[in-house]
Amino acid sequence: MSQAQEHARLDALHKLDLLDTPPSEAFDRITRMASQIFGLPIAAVSLTDHDRQWFKSRVGVDHWCIPRDKAPCAEVAETTGTVLIPDLLADDCYAGSHLARQGVRFYAGAPLVTRDGFGLGALCVLGTEPRRASATEMAALHDLAQMVMNQIELQHAFGRIDPLSGLPNRIQFLDDLEDLGRDRPGEKRLLVLVDLARGDQLTAAVRALGSSFLDQLVKDAGRALRSSLATDQKAYHVAATQFAFVARPGEDTAARVAALSKLMEGSGGEFDLRFGMTTAIGLASFVAGAAAAHDVLRMGHNAACDARAQQVPVTSYSPWNDEAHQRRFRLLNDFGAALGSPGQLKLVVQPRIDLRSGGCVGAEALLRWTHPELGNIPASEFIAIVEQTSLVRPMTGWVLHAALSRLQAWQSAGLDLDLSVNVSAANLEESDFAAQVQLLLLNYRIRPERLELEVTESAVMANAQRALRQLEMLDGAGVRVAIDDFGTGYSSLAYLQRLPAKVVKIDRTFVRRLPEEERARTLVCSMVSLSHDLGYRVVAEGVETADALQLLGAIGCDEAQGNYLARPMELDAFERWLDAHPSAATGRTAAA
Ligand code: C2E
Ligand code: MG
Ligand code: MG
């Protein structure tokens, strides 16, 4: 037996996960039968490991293993043939063996052979006297060895076949992909992953029809996929409603996938997936042996997700999308830790200037995150991610604490300044948000009118009724509400008038175009006058030039904020900046 063959044989044995497992009655029953048929005291299911014979089952033996060297069972495993030794002491090869030294004289062993032809070991019977074996006895031993193999394969299949579809599952898929890497390293292949339906479609169908619908769907789809593949091509059931297969080299996958897509959606005729489920197919090409099996599966899954997002039936894996997703996932994962570790998060503030007096009336608090490995993460990036999760609550909590503690310091120092804090849609959905804010104001002994909360139109519209309740409570408590990024949403001013807001912040996209575009000037002009008519104070965001500032003054805008006036800066820097730019002595007056 060559070294490579022995290596593959050991690999097959180890993959079965049999070695060093506890005895089981299923095997012992067969071993006892072998001992009875031969009328001999010793029998065993003996597996040939690297350097030992290990007994999965044994009768009349105390130990678990013997050395492989000069063990007749090793010969059975290596040759995958029967070995019969009437008298070990009379045998040239085995006279000096471990067994002979232990007093064993007779040996008969039948091979345990896998479907792939690997000899795992032997079912053997041993006697302490020399003996012959009849053809009937040997045939029985052979049959019993076959039964041992069936038992081994049955045990191995358990947990590898999906009971619903009857197809090999993800564990088997990963194993087979690793085998492919070993058997055909460097070969280019394509993974096809079929995702049967969108989550919401499945939920809706199960709600209406019960979970047996889902079972049927999966069975039908599995059968349809199986029958669309060549007989020697395996279909796998890799997740509850996902199937996969590896296309063969040179196969016309475009045509195959197009047909598959039709078939899965039920337009292919015989197979009826019913109720308009949308199938998404992800393709991932890979080089056998070069990528880890679970990465190949992940790439296929990613591609199917991209197909869903792009609302197309089929998409190929895109490393760029994958990277972006990995980054989003990582940021989300790490933000939780950032909330608890000092130094990663900080507030900066950007001054707001009263356009009549030219003095600073307050500032907007903006959150900054320095990731320990990725460095500074733009607020526009991480906040959009965090806002999708429950972490938004502790995030806003963190910002409010930091903002109020600084407001407290300003108040003690006699600084006449307000601070604005941005609030997310999800915060407005918390039923106790307003109450929490009031509690914080009390704890920090801050007058409510010192705090302004900025909400965007879309944040309010996300769940208008709940949001309105919170905003009304905040307004009732004296906290000022501002509409941020005004003009970018779809709501009309008439609708916004229902909001208990006092301030409108015109989005920087309009302000930026002011100096060059007549249209932008007209727009800002009417926004300002309408807002004033409705009783709002108007702030222009993102003022970048002297021209824009001058125009805003002429239009009658109340306040401005932007890099031309002052960039967002750290709190200490802001306090130094204030020394050179005194706060507005007049304070705020109602605009209208
Ligand atoms: P926003 O509330 O509209 O904040 C104004 C953004 O405009 C800030 O971006 C600010 O740095 C930027 N900006 C100010 N002046 C100029 C200018 O002259 N030109 C330009 N191009 N940009 C200017 P930042 O800090 O990156 O924040 C982006 C967005 O992230 C904010 O938009 C806000 O929606 C959100 N955000 C920031 N901090 C927080 C926070 O603590 N909580 C929540 N919920 N959202 C926050
Ligand atoms: Mg804002
Ligand atoms: Mg804004």
Automatic annotation (TrEMBL):
One of its GO terms (molecular function) is cyclic-guanylate-specific phosphodiesterase activity. CDD domains: EAL (cd01948). Residues 328-582 form the EAL domain. Signal peptide: none annotated. SUPFAM superfamilies: EAL domain-like, GAF domain-like, Nucleotide cyclase. Gene3D superfamilies: 3.30.450.40, 3.30.70.270, EAL domain. PROSITE patterns: EAL. PANTHER family: CYCLIC DI-GMP PHOSPHODIESTERASE PA2567 (PTHR33121:SF19), CYCLIC DI-GMP PHOSPHODIESTERASE PDEF (PTHR33121). This is GAF domain/GGDEF domain/EAL domain protein.
